[in-house]
Amino acid sequence: MARGKLILIEGLDRTGKSTQSEKILSALGDEAVLLKFPDRTTRIGELINQYLTDSNFELPAQSIHLLFSANRWELNSEIHSLLEAGKHVILDRYVYSGVAYSAAKEIPGMDISWCFNPDKGLLKPDLTLFFSNQDSSSLQDREGFGEERYEKIEFQKRVRHTFSNVFDHISDPNRAIVDVSDRSIEEVFRYIEPLFRTVINKDLEGFTYF
Ligand code: 2DT
Ligand code: MG
Fold first, then answer.
1. What percent of the chain has pLDDT over 90?
2. From 54, 109, 146, 157, which residue has the greatest number of CB atoms within 10 Å?
3. Å from CA of 84 to ligand 2 middle
4. Which Gene3D superfamilies does the protein's record reference (predicted)?
């Protein structure tokens, strides 16, 4: 049986990642499963959730970084099994968010290379779609952000910049940028559908790893 494909939706906050991930899932039906990182339901995920939602719960930047990575590792073998069983796995955030959000803190010593290290060896997606919007007045829309730890305009601007450095650092020919500015949900979906269908119809053998 052909293995399933690993499809990653990455991007900045409020670019419609979760909406499009759900739409891909509906389009593929029971051939696919959708996993979201951080997965807040595991023991490690509960700690991550507390860190994101409770501003009194402090952890060193290095520690929370390693927890986000550990959260991916705890699901790695399950993802592997699903793919081997022929299921397509859609991921809503993964390694690139892990590296970009931590490196954007600009902590001495915690550069992109340091941040990427604990994720080395994780399954690498067969397709990565990076959702981006224009860095303009939309970022003035403070109302649009919620209350979680990273949902601050200044930090989001740094994350945007850091993502492009992360892409320079981690090469991947199977990655595309999707500019969602001024596009409706349906327009974005019409744009990405042929991209993920092409990958799904490929006959790939073996796996690749970060
Ligand atoms: P959501 O809003 O998508 O639930 O993400 N993040 C995410 C990290 O800092 N490191 C990671 O490894 C991952 C996967 C992005 C919650 C926040 O967590 C950030 C936003
Ligand atoms: Mg969020």
1. 93
2. 157
3. 30
4. P-loop containing nucleotide triphosphate hydrolases
Residue 180: inside a domain: yes
Give all strands of the β-sheet with 32-36 in edge-to-edge order.
32-36, 88-92, 6-11, 127-132, 175-179
Q: Please give the distance, rounded to the nearest whole angstrom, from the Cα atom of residue 155 to the centre of ligand 1.
A: 13
pLDDT digit string (tens) for 116-167? Answer: 999 999 999 999 999 999 875 555 555 678 889 999 999 999 999 999 999 9
Q: Which of the two residues, 145 and 109, has the higher pLDDT score?
A: 109
For residue 104, tell me if it sits in a domain: yes
As a whole number of angstroms, the distance between CA 196 and CA 111 comes to 32
CATH number for the domain including 12?
A: 3.40.50.300
pLDDT digits (tens, 9 = 90+) for 179-196: 999 999 999 999 999 999
| Ligand 1 cavity residues, CB under 6 Å | 37-38, 52, 68, 93, 97-98, 101, 150
Are the CB atoms for 64 and 124 separated by under 8 Å?
A: no
Q: How far apart are CA 75 and CA 118, in angstroms?
A: 14
Q: What ligand is nearest to the CA atom of residue 75?
A: 1
Q: Which ligand is nearest to the CA of 48?
A: 1
Q: Is residue 206 in a domain?
A: no
Q: For residue 163, give the ligand nearest its CA.
A: 1
| Full residue range of the structural domain in which residue 45 is found | 6-185
What distance in angstroms lies between residue 11's CA and the mean position of ligand 2's atoms?
11
Its pTM stands at 0.96
Q: What value, to the nearest 5°, has the Cα angle with vertex 45 and ends 19 and 151?
A: 55
Counted domains in the chain: 1
Domain presence at residue 136:
yes
